[in-house]
Amino acid sequence: MESDRASTAVDDYLRRLDQALVRVHEPLASQVRDGITEELRSVAPEEALVRIQQLGDPTHIAAEASDDSAALTPGDTGKRGSRAYVAGTVALLSVGGILFPFIGWIAGLIFLWSGSVWRTAEKVVATLSPLVAGGLAFALYWLFTSPPSSAGINPLIPAATFAHWNVLIVGVAVNLGVAVWLLAVGLRRAGR
Hints:
The protein has helices at residues 2-20, 28-41, 45-55, 58-68, 83-99, 103-114, 120-145, 163-190. The protein is mainly α. The protein has two domains: 2-68, no CATH class; 79-190, no CATH class. The radius of gyration is 26 Å and the shape is elongated. The two termini are 39 Å apart.
């Protein structure tokens, strides 16, 4: 009698879990479903009932899995979410442009956008922030070094020939900050 009740409860729980996992990308949805199914079917009936209570509402499990898989695409192999991939991508983004001017940074962006651990908004921020920071540094430099028509050149502000160095330094500093942020986020998610 108790085993029939537990079996019915397990079947009902797994049916609700299947319904909740509809919006989670594969292969993560299958992994979650298979793991919970194996766990519930491998324990004694009374333990299965206790475990169902511990697991909680299937919609919460699916929501958690959906948050983890927000950046995954169907058919993702998982290699683009490994710790080594995260470290390599961040290295290319942060110092790739110094070692291999411009090409290294572009390669880092390709790896970033191909990766599965970062969400789209994080990828956009990482792509645009060095460009925006460098452009803003250049605009501010131009604004403050352009003399009014009646004034001469300010001797306290470096010559315009050094403007590209200011832009480069600001761009690199912002890029390194973004790289540290991407590394922290990527390693945290890759470790799950």
